[in-house]
Amino acid sequence: MPELRHDPVQRRWVIIATERAQRPHDFQVDRALPQAQNCPFCTGHEAATPPEIAAFRDAAAPNAPGWKVRVVSNKYPALRIEGDLERAAAGQYDRMNGIGAHEVIVETPDHDKDISDLPIEHIGQILKMYRERLIDLQRDPRFRYILIFRNRGAAAGASLEHPHSQIIATPVTPRTVAVELQSAREHYAVKERCIFCDIIVDELRQHSRIVTADDDFVTWCPYAARFPFEMMLAPRKHAADYAAMDDAQILRLARHLREVILRMKDSLDDPPYNFLLHTAPSYQMQRRRPGYWSTIEQDWHWHIEILPRLTKTAGFEWGSGFYINPTAPEDAARYMRDVRVPVMER
Ligand SMILES: [Zn+2]
Ligand SMILES: [Zn+2]
């Protein structure tokens, strides 16, 4: 059973998950990713994964070929779904059982197609699956936050080449999200406006950091970007919860996201990258907890962060929490804005 341990000095939780890698040689860096013939996510290899949790498929039988998007439990989960939290003191420390969910969304049966190679309708199915899993996992009162993310390329932490996203539901709100939630709440308390809406209005007015914008979504390089070509994508209209999007909005997001990824890939020659979704915490359940804030639907604005992995975090970053970004976000945005991407209707 994995365990969550609290660091009282840094005020952060760490997952101790010893089943994932026990021996020093499991930590080899820059290992080659497995080839398609023994890839557990390829179509025809359904038996190599834990049983399906959900899928969009043409054929009726689960755990067999015929699917387009498939969700399974992670075979080496960082957190486990069964059991109770058993929050406890351990001497002067705090700990709890590593309860949570760790799922993999296999995005396509095709090993060699990245998300931006797929038709909009298929990307839409991936993004709909995000919504379905969020709605399902938000029902579990043990989970405070559900993070969906995507690692592409070994340098971005992917252990399999086959295009996939991951979902981790945690019994505590991750610190990075907690800081964002706190800022948004405090901004709203003073100004009665959403901090993200304020930023979006300002970015659209200035335009220098906009990568692309359409009627529904906008992507820009943040003013204080940590990494070169870091991007933020958000709906233009205020919305706290990703899972509240309807099918038509999701299709428009698919179109926007594909364009953004194509601009990034073209500018940077297919870089490794991480992408993460910061939606609202599972507030439907949490709301009943005393002291849970009531303005979350007004103060939080869901967004996706896209982080190309072009630089390595080293001692200074780890020691200080500062980042040194060698590319001005205005330059990165202009570069990606100027890329000519093919206009594809499907
Ligand atoms: Zn594969
Ligand atoms: Zn907003």
User: Biggest sheet, open or closed, and with what strands and sense?
Assistant: 10 strands, antiparallel
- Which molecules are bound in this entry? zinc ion
Shape: globular
Helix and strand composition category: alpha+beta
In the CATH classification, which architecture applies? 2-Layer Sandwich
**Which stretches are poorly predicted, pLDDT < 50 over at least 5 residues?**
none
First-last Cα distance: 45 Å
Descriptive account of the structure:
This protein is an alpha+beta fold. The protein has a single domain, classed as 2-Layer Sandwich (HIT family, subunit A), CATH 3.30.428. It contains eight helices and 14 strands. The chain has a ten-stranded antiparallel beta sheet with strand order 3-4-7-9-8-13-14-12-11-10, with helices on both faces. A four-stranded antiparallel beta sheet has the order 2-1-6-5, with no helix packed on it. The radius of gyration is 20 Å and the shape is globular. The protein binds zinc ion (2 copies).
For this entry, give a set of tags:
346 residues, alpha+beta, HIT family, subunit A, 27% helix, binds zinc ion
Short description:
With 346 residues, this protein is α+β, with helices and mostly antiparallel strands. The chain has helices spanning 120-137, 175-191, 195-206, 247-268, 283-286, 296-299, 315-320, 329-338; strands at residues 3-7, 12-16, 52-57, 67-73, 88-90, 93-97, 101-106, 145-152, 164-170, 210-213, 217-220, 231-235, 273-278, 303-308. It has eight helices and 14 strands.
